[in-house]
Amino acid sequence: MNLLSGIGVTADALAAQKTRLDIVAQNIANAQTTRTSAGGPYQRQIVSFETELVQQGGGPALQGVKVAGIAPDRSPGQQVYNPQHPDADSSGFVTMPNVNVAYEMVDMITASRAYEANLAFAKDARQLAEKTLEIGK
Amino acid sequence: MIPVGSISSSPILPPSIAPVAPSITETGGSAPAAGGFGQMLDRLVSPVEQQQAQADRITQQVLLGDSGQLHQSVIAMQEASLSFSLMVQVRNKLVESYQELMRMQA
Fold this sequence. Notes:
The complex is a heterodimer of chains A (137) and B (106). Chain A is an alpha+beta fold and 137 residues long. Chain A has helices spanning 7-29, 101-133, and strands spanning 45-54, 62-72, 79-81, 93-95. A two-stranded antiparallel ribbon of chain A has the order 1-2. Chain A is elongated. The two termini of chain A are 22 Å apart. Chain B is mainly α and 106 residues long. Chain B is 77% helix and 0% strand. Chain B has helices spanning 4-8, 13-17, 20-29, 37-64, 70-103. The longest helix of chain B is centred in the C-terminal third of the chain and has 34 residues, at 70-103. Classes of the chains: A alpha+beta (137), B mainly alpha (106).
């Protein structure tokens, strides 16, 4: 049954934006992490999206969205002089993660607004279906 | 116009009703190919039931922490609720037509 038209695409978009928000949270949480299992400081992660065909019963095939991949940002991290730090190199510099908290905040706001936009669509689809059912009343 | 006496007279009504009642129980009990009233209701209710079971399953997964897809759970519940409303609408129409039929003998 496909009572809520287009809801499959919206559900995909909500999942994708949620992944983006999770990655933003991870970037902010690791903004001061200088040691990772792969060695070196934490690298900022970037989420990219791609389209995906969503089949729905009786309608046209719609293009949904899914997470294409989570790739690291390769730009170098800031060098901070801090000889007391356990991860400082021989000249006393610590390589900090390449996370810019201000950028992450902007990303977070963009992702939450995108999530809200998709929620607004879900609400609208529900209201339309309810109005349609009122034909019989 | 039909005289009032012919409608209220008891010899006419019982024979017309009596053959109908056993035939309903027959189609409901033995012959599913005939597509009786019970089967029609069954076809109406079973997809709604499936949808509610699916919503239950997804919500349980979210509550147990197996899935972080909160929106999937709410959407599934909404779809179940809508299909239930649709079923109620169809039921209302059926009852309405039944009552309309019953009014014919009045």
